[in-house]
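Recall the central idea of this unit: under ordinary conditions, the amino acid sequence of a chain determines the structure it adopts. In this exercise we apply that idea directly, starting from the sequence alone.
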Amino acid sequence: MERGARRERITRLVLVLVGVVAALIGGYLFYYGLTQWLDFQRGTYLMYSFLVLVLLVYVFLALPREKRIQLTAKTVSVLRCNQCGAFVVREFERGDYVFKEEGGCRKCGSGTCFIEEIFETSLRKRTPKRRYKIFR
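Accordingly, the structure predicted from this sequence is:
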């Protein structure tokens, strides 16, 4: 399990437990405030139950949400052979940099491939705007 996912799961569990405890305490304070026979204490308990309700709302708003990341671009590396000039486009790998030696050429077998370019390509295919024909 990835460390970030584990930490997020623990955070979610702790926040849910705090929320449940806050709901129980708030419910008890609200009930006790309504059934209290002394008027000056009734308002105090109702105020405490309101504050616990605010804490409860804050706790549930602080829960981590699933992140939906939509990739809009992809980074690629262009490898070119110094002998025959053949090139290969592949996905960017961690540690890639321009002029990095990547090994022998697959086409000619005698040259050495170097990373010539690193750039991003768009993943979204833009659909052209529909133009309506005007009939005359």
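The mean pLDDT is 79.
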